[in-house]
């Protein structure tokens, strides 16, 4: 550390954190840390503006780190050296450029109409309020740095990985909005912060599933329970197609083609962003006809018969856990299907994986795979329907015909 008449970078983070004696401590080049009698610490920049010495507050230590204070001091000194007035410049900035908190609320207001789930809308802003606002809430969006983002994400990056990921995405969304409105220029602070974060361990989410040999009995219980008929039909349809909940609840009649016995999900409705064809068995066709008779005017296959809108996400879980008394999850029936296919049939693994609309992990294989094994999947889904609806218990051995 230089110790001459004009020290430069005289302070360090450790010393700054330990200073408790009230006074003014120089970092060099006109930057000072002021320790008040109350113990509060704040930054002040002393510079010459128009031939006069001016003191300019840069913020408290809780929101402005040593590195940030140096960065701000450098930019304001440059304005003063060029003949400008950094205080007037900052006043203009504060008049025009919003704080991060104000910017995030503006973005939230814009996004809310696009969200159908009020809970998600509330969580979006609450996450920023809890983790981002204490660090950058009062800071102008133009002054948010990669170091700031790193300070926000580091404490929860490994302990709360999902929350941290969502938080980084939401901070990035606010800064993109600020950039689009001309408030921010330069590099992306969130992208810069990611370089300084460790790799998160991969977490595999496992859903509680029903043993496949118990599925036929459970389907009978669903048919006989006291839930609404449409809810029961949607649930059985989900099990027989091995589909995801969202895909079933938002299914539209325009996606169903009974003449070819296919339900075709468009790319925007699949997790893989690829179209997915689902072969329809005889029992599935019966379910579709019953659903149509219950709500003949709706565009949705399984609507709430009173509102015409899709059934809520909790509808099927309520049927399963409250009406039938199972502790499994709705999504777990995909695992039940996979276990059945692996343990009781000779269908190749890629056929059941294709039925589940899973991505092909091998990029080379994915690049060369053109078909979707529809013919083989049609035979497999019929075997699954036979097992679930008739419970013959036999091992299914199939001589494959068409390759789809």
For the structure shown, list the relevant keywords.
404 residues, alpha+beta, Double Stranded RNA Binding Domain, DNA polymerase, domain 1, hpI Integrase, Chain A, 3 domains, four-stranded antiparallel β-sheet, three-stranded antiparallel β-sheet, 17 helices, 7 strands, 48% helix, disordered C terminus
Report the CATH topology name of the largest domain: hpI Integrase, Chain A
User: How many helices?
Assistant: 17
The major pleated sheet works out as: 4 strands, antiparallel
Q: What gap, in angstroms, lies between the N and C termini?
A: 73 Å
Spatial order of the strands in the main sheet? Answer: 1-2-3-4
Written overview of the protein:
- The chain has 3 domains: 81 residues, Integrase, DNA-binding domain (Double Stranded RNA Binding Domain, 2-Layer Sandwich), CATH 3.30.160.390; 95 residues, Tyrosine recombinase, N-terminal domain (DNA polymerase, domain 1, Orthogonal Bundle); 179 residues, hpI Integrase, Chain A.
- Helix 5 crosses helix 6, helix 9 crosses helix 17 and helix 10 runs antiparallel to helix 12.
- The chain has a 4-stranded antiparallel sheet with strand order 1-2-3-4, covered by helices on one side.
- The chain has 404 residues and is an alpha+beta fold.
- The N and C termini lie far apart (73 Å).
- The protein is 48% helix and 10% strand.
- It is built from 17 helices and 7 strands.
């Amino acid at each position: 550390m230089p110790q001459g008449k004009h020290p430069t970078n005289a302070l360090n983070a450790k010393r700054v954190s330990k200073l408790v004696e009230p006074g003014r401590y120089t970092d060099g080049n006109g930057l000072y840390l002021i320790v008040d009698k109350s113990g509060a610490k704040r930054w002040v920049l002393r510079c010459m503006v128009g031939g006069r010495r001016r003191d300019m507050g840069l913020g408290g230590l809780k929101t402005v780190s040593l590195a940030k204070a140096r960065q701000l001091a450098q930019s304001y000194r440059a304005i003063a050296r060029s003949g400008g007035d950094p205080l007037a410049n900052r006043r203009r900035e504060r008049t025009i450029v919003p704080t991060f908190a104000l910017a995030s609320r503006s973005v939230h207001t814009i996004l809310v109409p696009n969200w159908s789930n009020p809970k998600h809308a509330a969580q979006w802003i609450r996450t920023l309020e809890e983790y981002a606002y204490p660090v950058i809430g009062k800071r102008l969006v133009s002054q948010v740095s990669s170091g700031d983002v790193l300070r926000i994400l580091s404490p929860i990056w490994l302990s709360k990985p999902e929350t941290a990921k969502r938080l980084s995405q939401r901070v990035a969304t606010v800064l993109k909005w600020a950039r689009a409105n001309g408030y921010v220029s330069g590099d992306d602070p969130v992208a810069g912060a990611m370089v300084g974060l460790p790799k998160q361990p991969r977490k595999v989410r496992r859903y509680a599933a029903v043993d496949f040999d118990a599925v036929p009995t459970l389907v009978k219980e669903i048919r006989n329970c006291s839930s609404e008929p449409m809810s029961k039909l949607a649930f059985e349809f989900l099990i027989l197609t091995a589909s995801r909940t969202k895909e079933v609840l938002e299914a539209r009649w325009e996606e169903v083609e009974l003449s070819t016995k296919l339900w075709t999900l468009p790319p925007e409705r699949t997790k893989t962003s690829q179209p997915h064809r689902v072969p329809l068995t005889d029992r599935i066709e019966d379910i579709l006809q019953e659903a149509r008779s219950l709500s003949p005017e709706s565009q949705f296959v399984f609507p709430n018969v009173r509102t015409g809108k899709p059934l809520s996400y909790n509808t099927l879980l309520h049927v399963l856990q409250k009406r039938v008394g199972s502790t499994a999850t709705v999504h777990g029936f995909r695992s039940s299907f996979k276990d059945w296919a692996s343990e009781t049939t000779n269908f190749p693994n890629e056929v059941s994986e294709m039925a589940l609309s899973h991505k092909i992990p091998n990029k080379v294989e994915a690049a060369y795979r053109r078909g979707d094994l529809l013919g083989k999947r049609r035979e497999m889904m019929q075997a699954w329907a036979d097992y679930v609806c008739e419970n013959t218990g036999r091992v299914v051995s199939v001589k494959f015909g068409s390759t789809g």
